[in-house]
Amino acid sequence: MNDLDWEAVLNRASPSSIRSEIRSTVERMEDLLDRADGPGMLFDKFRTDPTDKVIKISDFDTEIPLWIIGDLHGDLLALEAALVAMRQPDLQPGEGPPRILFLGDLFDDEGFSLEILLRVFELIVDAPDRVCVIAGNHDEALSYDGVRFASSVTPSDFADFLNANLTHEWIERAGKLAVRLFTNAPRALFFPDGLLAAHGGFPLVDLHPALAESGEWNNPMCLSDFVWTRAHPKARRKLPNRFSRGSQFGYEDFAAFCSLSAGLGRPITHMVRGHDHVDERYASFPAYGANPLLTTVALSRRLSREAFGPYERVPTMAQYVEGALPSVYRLHIPAEMIRACYPPPAADSIDNHPSQEPQP
């Protein structure tokens, strides 16, 4: 998508405007999470009980578009571009706000983590039944012990930011809300057409015997694998290795999980996920042809922990397609806008890219 109203996108991606509403946003979100019957977010009605985090969706209206947004890591510009894009008349028929599924990892890696969190809160409180947020590893890693915030993952700059602002009542309360939201957020969604949606992956092969016997999807190790595992683009199989939280899976591992899930009454044939920051910001590996897998992330810049490639990237979002992988939309944000929002390190300055026209 090249022809969006980029001025409108830039105006909406205003950290100061979002922060100016922090008190109202936080209070509304607190009220929502305090409801006795739960917040009533998208897909909550399909939970077997309020603590169910692996949700089997038994009835899904395919007439209303469902938009899927992968890792944001504080990328306010990419989020606002996606929100403008999905509201285009040819993509959002009918009335009402769009349905959105976030695949997790809203914060860390610098950027505008607080503002991303507040914008997602705004989307939720404006239409809870139109928004679902799956927990990513950075979201799940954030904790609060009553005194300070902490994180079990690196980078963890959002926890550092929250601790530096403990005297700011509304920032502290926003952080506590994040912990509350992601503590009970779904780890995986099973759609009726065979689509699995998760941040990372699925329970790895060493868990399959116990899962086949118990059918306990909310086992902590299963929940962890939905969040933390990574896709290997070519390997047939990978040995589980959770000691570094870097377990990978191969295409035969995914096929084995699809077979297992079918036997447990949750047939899976394909998957959408985030977690892996692929260069093109989306990937569908040929090796997974029998059981297709789509990775999509919404990052408009090269993160500091990404060593190679251009600084400006093309973030993606995807739209649910019944019986197939979601359709990918690439958001071609102008390079000068990306650099204005996220000034690159000196080594990536415009002067070091003579093929580009200097910006005023």
How would you describe what is shown here?
By secondary structure, the protein is α/β, with parallel strands linked by helices. The protein has helices at 6-12, 15-20, 22-33, 76-86, 113-126, 137-141, 157-164, 169-183, 208-214, 220-228, 251-263, 335-341, and strands at residues 54-56, 66-69, 99-102, 131-133, 142-144, 149-151, 188-190, 195-198, 230-231, 248-249, 270-273, 282-283, 293-296, 316-319, 327-330. The strands form four sheets. It has a six-stranded mixed beta sheet with strand order 1-7-8-11-13-12. A five-stranded mixed beta sheet has the order 4-3-2-14-15, covered by helices on one side. A two-stranded antiparallel ribbon has the order 5-6. A hairpin with a 4-residue loop joins strand 7 (188-190) and strand 8. The longest helix has 15 residues, at 169-183. Mean pLDDT is 94; it is low at 350-360.
Q: Ends: how far apart?
A: 24 Å
Shape: globular
How much strand?
A: 5-15%
What is the number of beta strands? 15
Order of helices and strands: HHHEEHEHEHEEHHEEHHEEHEEEEEH
Strand order of the largest sheet: 1-7-8-11-13-12
What's the helical proportion of residues?
A: 25-40%
SSE class: alpha/beta
Q: Please state the CA-atom Rg, rounded to the nearest Å.
A: 20 Å
| Low-confidence runs of at least 5 consecutive residues | 350-360
DSSP helix count? Answer: 12
**What is the arithmetic mean of pLDDT?**
94
Main beta-sheet annotation: 6 strands, mixed
